Amino acid sequence: MSTLNRVQAPEFHAVKHVDLKRSEDVTLNNGMPLFMVNAGTQDVMKLEFIFSGGMRNTQLPIIATAVNDMLDEGTKKRSAMDIAEELDFYGAFIETEVTHDQASFTLWTLNKYLEPALEIVNDVIRNAAFPEKEFSIYRNNRKQKYVVDTDKVSVLARRRFAELLFGDDHAYGKRTHLADFDLLKTSDLDLFHKQYYHAGNGCILAAGNLPSNLREVLNKHFGGEDWKGSANGNIPVAPASSNPQREHLVKKEGAMQSALRVGRVLFNREHTDFPAMQVLNCALGGYFGSRLMANIREDKGYTYGIGSGLASMYGNGYFYISAEVGVDVTNAALKEVYFEIDRLQQDLIPDGELELVRNYMTGVFLRSTDGPFAIADRRRALIGYDLDYNYYDRYLETIQSVSSSSLRDLAQKYLKKEDLIELVAGDRK
After folding, report:
1. How far, in Å, CA of 73 to CA of 274, rounded?
2. What is the signed CA dihedral for 228, 112, 107, 199, rounded to 10 degrees?
3. Complete DSSP assignment for 92-110
4. Backbone torsions φ then ψ of 5, nearest 5 degrees
5. pLDDT digits (tens, 9 = 90+) for 210-267
């Protein structure tokens, strides 16, 4: 028997390839796509229903959000309390989410209670009634939250930044205004629900230790021709119309902090430069050891946290830097932001720093493939894009092979100061 040497560190190996378990892709009888990630040992599963009912598919973004939020507020035969109590009885629970492009409804359930849980979910998704009493409460609560959030500089920055990037009438730029809540009616919710929540506009992503008859069970509840519907799809995304003015201020009297946003419209993950830009972004502000954190948090002490990122939507994407700083150091913090961008454009990232970024990003990816639900998230990230599993091979290959000179070229090409929109919500002195 070999003895474990606790003095000698384990041998280090760079990860070159990840054998990611792939989903089995089939369809229900009515043509609804079903992606099955059969993995894990526990008899628990996750079923995510994904519809093209995102916020960009309506003139009032609040409609898409309200529909998704209120699905479990009552059906034609169940009240909100009935739904909650029945799901709780079977140890199941649900989650909902809306983005610009999609709306999703997720069921978590034990395998042995799949059938009764699906009977409830079938009723909730297909027969949502949007009761007037619950709708009135929901609308009032959302209005109150909107008013409260308006006092936060981070919220003011988020709302305005999208408008500046894409245009205030763009599918990704328009935002909800307080007056929109009073325009909202249950008939709007009902119409949107009928248009987008059906098999013709959706798919199902299943993950866990899946039963062998899962497709048959899902066909029973969701595979009928009566739920097929007409494919509305997503409203085409027009080109972005970024504000030509570079610097912007949303002034808030008495603000102690300012929320900073710096960024530009870029591209989504279908673009060939996206993986390499992720490496560049990571070095700049994508993890705790990034240059922005080291300079503006650790060295200068201007903020508790600052970061950068790449947002990917179906029709577009954007790059952003985000932070909250004291009003008195707003200008100084922005000066350091541009200093770090300039360094990336002028100097090569040292080998040691780049190796740290490579290892960090590879480790994050490996962690994101641990377990059936994490693997399913990797499959979900491909839905709606013209991509297959080879994307992840190219992503890992780029992480390991992209050179410092290539990253400098990307910084010079995509992070020109004159292309970046700068927004301060709060004040600057």
Report:
1. 40
2. -10
3. -EEEEEE-SS-EEEEEEEE
4. -90, 105
5. 999 999 999 999 999 999 988 776 677 889 999 999 999 999 999 999 999 999 999 9
- Judge whether 421 and 244 are in contact, CB under 8 Å: no
CB 347: neighbour CB atoms within 10 A?
11
Total residues found in the chain within this entry: 429
Q: Which domain does 405 fall in, by range?
A: 247-426
Sheet (strand 44-51) strand order? 24-27, 33-38, 202-208, 44-51, 103-110, 93-98
Q: Which of 174, 192, 227 finishes a domain? A: 227
Three-state DSSP class for residue 423: strand
Cα(304)–Cα(75) distance, integer angstroms: 45
301 residue type, one letter = G
In a domain, 119, yes or no: yes
* Number of domains into which the chain is organized: 2
Q: Are 263 and 421 in contact (CB under 8 A)?
A: yes
- Note the pLDDT tens digit of each residue in 31-85: 999 999 999 899 999 999 999 999 999 989 999 999 999 999 999 999 999 999 9
Look up residue 202 and give its amino acid.
G
Strand-pair category, 93-98 with 103-110: antiparallel
Q: Amino acid identity, residue 174? A: K
235 within some domain:
no
**Which CATH number fits the domain that encloses residue 30?**
3.30.830.10
Residue 1 lies in a domain: no
Q: Kindly state whether residues 68 and 193 are assigned to the same domain.
A: yes
Q: Please say whether the beta carbons of 16 and 78 come within 8 A.
A: no
